Amino acid sequence: MAKKSNTTAAAWEKAKSTVKEHGDDLRALDSHGALYAWAKEHKLATTALFPKFKTELLKQLGIDYNELREQAYAQRREQIAAAAADGPLVELWTAADDEVNSFAICGPGGVVVTYNTFHDDDKTYRIGDQGSADRSVAEFAVFIAGKVREELDVEAARLTLHVLNHEVAADDPGLTRSALGAHVTVTIEIDQDNPAAEWCREPGYKSWRETDLRTLVADEAVAS
């Protein structure tokens, strides 16, 4: 216990002294990205040190890293929404089954896009937690929508995501990050008539790479 306490104290001291020493340089950085790059360059972008670095930024210099990050994300979301307004509409159905550690994603017409078991290193899914399974496959669907966007060579796209779990929300932090990375806007619809559900217990697997991504674009005249 004492060893851990000493390590934590040393981490706090390192963050404090580094910010104090380089205050002028840090004040000149005007974005969370620039601050993170600086922290990475100075060996502070670690699980142990970075939270303490952010705290010292706020305490010593009045720089709120989290607020800068959220402002940048909000601006980026607005840019993506504007670009996606006239972009293609991707439509996907997702389901997960925690009992058998599996998930599935389907496209228009019920065609299966991918189905498989969760990877051991999945960052969202926790065994025994159905909600996390549903959120994980929803994030994967956003990733696939981003690949559709790349395939179509457009700046941004819209995704209508049909899910079974009402707890899956478009403003979930994981989905928000995924949508930013994929350059898509996400609309969630709760749909109990979900073709992906039956694929969760289908033997075998299918990679999304086997799917013609262009077939995942919805016929908006029909969808509306």
Tags for this model:
224 residues; globular
Quick structural overview:
This protein has about 220 residues and is of the alpha/beta class. It is built from 9 helices and 5 strands; from the N terminus they run αααααβββαβαβαα.
Identify the strand order in the major beta sheet: 3-2-1-4-5
Order of helices and strands: HHHHHEEEHEHEHH
Strand content: 15-25%
Averaging pLDDT over every residue, what do you get?
93
State the share of residues found in helices, binned by percent. 40-55%
The tally of beta strands, per DSSP, is: 5
Largest sheet: 5 strands, mixed
Distance between the termini: 61 Å
From the alpha carbons, calculate the radius of gyration and give it in angstroms: 21 Å
Oligomer: single chain
Ranges with pLDDT <50 over ≥5 residues? none
Q: Based on helices, strands and strand pairing, what is the structural class?
A: alpha/beta
Number of helices: 9
Shape: globular
Give the SSE map.
Elements: H1 2-21, H2 23-27, H3 32-41, H4 50-61, H5 65-84, E1 89-97, E2 102-106, E3 112-117, H6 130-152, E4 157-163, H7 173-182, E5 184-190, H8 196-199, H9 220-223
Parallel strand pairs: 1-4, 4-5
Antiparallel strand pairs: 1-2, 2-3
Helix pairs in contact: 1-4, 6-7
